[in-house]
């Protein structure tokens, strides 16, 4: 769908990220919400639309004394927030809401105020994945990668290069969980988690939160945050498979192609117009899939593109400039943090700022290969 | 008897789990379009017909992809396990474990032929796969 002539006018993460045993999940949501509203120059009384994933949306609105007239609880895992932004834009464009607050909080490391995970042996995963040990994402989301690599003549070193490239972005960032440079050799030498994946090819596990405030571009112009507004230029979303074994193609994810294709098309731009990308990286293979499926490189070219520096500082396509879920933070649903970094880059406020970012593409994935969402964001309409 | 989670069948999957308990594997085949599918559904995912028939498949497969899980959950008693995606000779792909082979990438080649094995798990029987060269 087209951008809807809406803007992100507030964006913030929780003050701290990492290990936060003194905060409940609801506190993480609401701390991020109040910080994002403050960033926008708005308050809870201005909000009439609410969206989040992971708990009933009205838990957050009621906690803050907000009485929403528009609610979205779309829950498709870590890319839910890309869909919330897209749905909020439709709602604002249709007049169903004026100011939408999208929140995320997760006590992924400490588990404070979190419902315990309970496997369901009658679910598709419970019948056809978990009995074989495919439960934890590091041993499930990862299963197609050897097929991806072999089809292209690539190796696990290509996974290691993704990690090394992203560490150049998180290098020295005190907010990043892993913030020291590392070589591809070091990545390959680290402890094996699920061959071919070593420790550093798997995301960090953290506590934290983030929130976005959206409103019409017209109203954005009147806010104190007007000169920092980030505009939604295009968006897309798509569904995939509830169990990894049923991907149409182990070496390509159709939902990335659909979601990113629609986002670029509706934004009316080509790949050459994109200055910066955030590609949801719960594991090191995902940026490789996304580079190819989103059409930024040709089939089989992703490994060499990363290894040759294409995504590093100074490269042609700066990617995952906060260090990504592999290095910056990953609460369990990283998508909010991918959007936050795109907003910072577009505002010129990032820790490792890319010069002259005007258009950023954010590509998310959720529930392993269950869903995808893509946004094209710009600092001009 | 292997250790780990036990699948709980639902109405549309029960014939599959009944077949593995009988040391065979049956899948729904679509009568109009002729194609089998996995996981079992009430409608053919290709032509959307509800005219399905349960037919036995050969138990032959090839290795499509895998990981060697070095950190199995507590239910699996700690040993490394090969979590594999296999393509059945009849077409559908499924997740399984490889057995009767070293948990080492040197022993594993994508495309290698496999044969089904059956392993008791609680009141169910799981289809596992072994290299065809060693399988009976």
Features:
heterodimer, A: 381 residues, alpha/beta, Peroxisomal Thiolase, Chain A, domain 1, 2 domains, nine-stranded mixed beta sheet, two-stranded antiparallel ribbon, 13 helices, 18% strand, globular, B: OB fold (Dihydrolipoamide Acetyltransferase, E2P), two-stranded antiparallel sheet, 37% strand, Thiolase (chain A), acyltransferase activity, transferring groups other than amino-acyl groups (chain A)
Tell me, briefly, the overall form of chain B: globular
Distance between the termini of chain B: 19 Å
Structural class of chain B: mainly beta
Instruction: Calculate the terminal CA-CA distance of chain A, rounded to whole Å.
Output: 15 Å
Structural class by sheet pairing and helices of chain A: alpha/beta
CATH architecture of the largest domain in chain B, please?
Beta Barrel
- Assess the beta-strand content of chain B as a share of residues: 35-45%
- Would you identify the CATH architecture of the largest domain in chain A? 3-Layer(aba) Sandwich
How helix-rich are the residues of chain A, as a percent range? 25-40%
What's the count of strands of chain B?
7
**Annotated CATH topology of the largest domain in chain B:** OB fold (Dihydrolipoamide Acetyltransferase, E2P)
CATH topology name of the largest domain in chain A:
Peroxisomal Thiolase, Chain A, domain 1
Overall radius of gyration of chain B:
15 Å
- Strand order in the sheet with the most strands of chain A: 3-2-4-7-1-8-11-10-9
Notes on the structure:
The complex is a heterodimer of chains A (381) and B (136). By secondary structure, chain A is of the alpha/beta class. Chain A has 13 helices and eleven strands. In chain A, a hairpin with a 1-residue loop joins strand 5 (192-195) and strand 6. In chain B, the strands form two sheets. In chain B, strands 5-4-3-6-7 form a five-stranded antiparallel sheet, with helices on one face. Chain B has a two-stranded antiparallel ribbon with strand order 1-2. In chain B, strand 6 and strand 7 form a beta hairpin. The A-B interface holds A 119, 121-122, 124, 126-136, 138-140, 142-148, 150, 192-197, 243-246, 250 and B 4-10, 13, 17, 38-39, 64-73, 76, 81, 83-85, 93-97, 105, 110, 121, 124, 126.
């Amino acid at each position: 769908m087209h951008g809807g002539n809406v803007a992100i006018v507030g964006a913030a993460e929780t003050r701290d990220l990492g290990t936060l045993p003194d905060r409940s999940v609801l506190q993480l949501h609401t701390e991020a919400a109040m910080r994002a509203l403050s960033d926008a120059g708005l308050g809870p009384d201005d909000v009439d639309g609410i969206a989040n994933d992971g708990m009933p949306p009205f838990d957050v609105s009621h906690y803050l004394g907000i009485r929403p007239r528009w609610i979205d609880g779309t829950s498709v895992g870590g890319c839910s927030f890309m869909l919330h932004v897209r749905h909020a834009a439709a709602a604002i464009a249709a007049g169903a809401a004026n100011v939408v607050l999208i929140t995320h909080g997760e006590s992924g490391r400490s588990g404070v105020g979190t419902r315990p995970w309970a496997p369901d042996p009658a679910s598709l995963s419970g019948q056809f994945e978990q009995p074989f040990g495919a439960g934890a994402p590091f041993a499930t989301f990862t299963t197609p990668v050897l097929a991806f690599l072999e089809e292209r003549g690539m190796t696990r070193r290509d996974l290691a290069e993704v990690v090394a490239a992203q560490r150049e972005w998180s290098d020295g960032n005190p907010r990043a969980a892993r913030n020291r440079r590392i070589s591809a050799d070091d990545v390959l030498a680290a402890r094996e988690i699920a061959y071919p994946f070593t420790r550093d090819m798997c995301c960090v596990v953290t506590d934290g939160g983030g929130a976005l405030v959206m409103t019409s571009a017209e109203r954005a112009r009147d806010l104190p945050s007007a000169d920092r507004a980030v505009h939604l230029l295009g968006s897309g979303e798509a569904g995939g498979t509830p169990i990894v074994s049923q991907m149409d193609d182990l070496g390509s994810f159709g939902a990335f192609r659909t979601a990113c294709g629609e986002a670029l098309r509706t934004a009316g731009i080509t790949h050459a117009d994109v200055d910066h990308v955030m590609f949801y990286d719960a594991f090191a293979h995902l940026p490789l899939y996304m580079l190819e499926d989103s059409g930024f490189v040709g089939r089989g070219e992703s490994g060499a593109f990363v290894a040759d520096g294409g995504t590093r500082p100074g490269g042609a396509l700066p990617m995952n400039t906060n260090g990504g879920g592999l290095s910056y933070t990953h609460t369990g649903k990283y998508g909010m943090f991918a959007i936050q970094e795109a907003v910072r880059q577009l505002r010129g406020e990032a820790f490792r700022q890319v010069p002259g970012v005007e258009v950023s593409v954010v590509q998310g994935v959720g529930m392993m290969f269950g869903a995808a969402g893509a946004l094209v964001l710009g600092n001009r309409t | 008897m292997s250790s780990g989670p036990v699948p709980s069948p639902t109405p549309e999957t029960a014939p599959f789990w009944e077949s593995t308990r009988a040391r065979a594997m049956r899948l729904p085949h679509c009568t109009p379009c002729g194609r089998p599918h996995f996981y079992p559904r009430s409608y053919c995912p290709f032509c959307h017909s509800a005219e399905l028939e349960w037919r036995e498949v050969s138990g032959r497969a090839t290795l499509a992809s895998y990981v060697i899980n070095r950190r199995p959950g507590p239910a699996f008693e700690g040993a490394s396990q090969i979590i594999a995606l296999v393509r059945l000779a009849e077409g559908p792909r499924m997740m399984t474990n490889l057995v009767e082979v070293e948990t080492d990438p040197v022993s594993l080649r994508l495309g290698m032929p496999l044969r089904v094995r059956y392993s008791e798990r609680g009141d169910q029987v799981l289809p596992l796969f072994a290299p065809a060269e060693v399988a009976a």
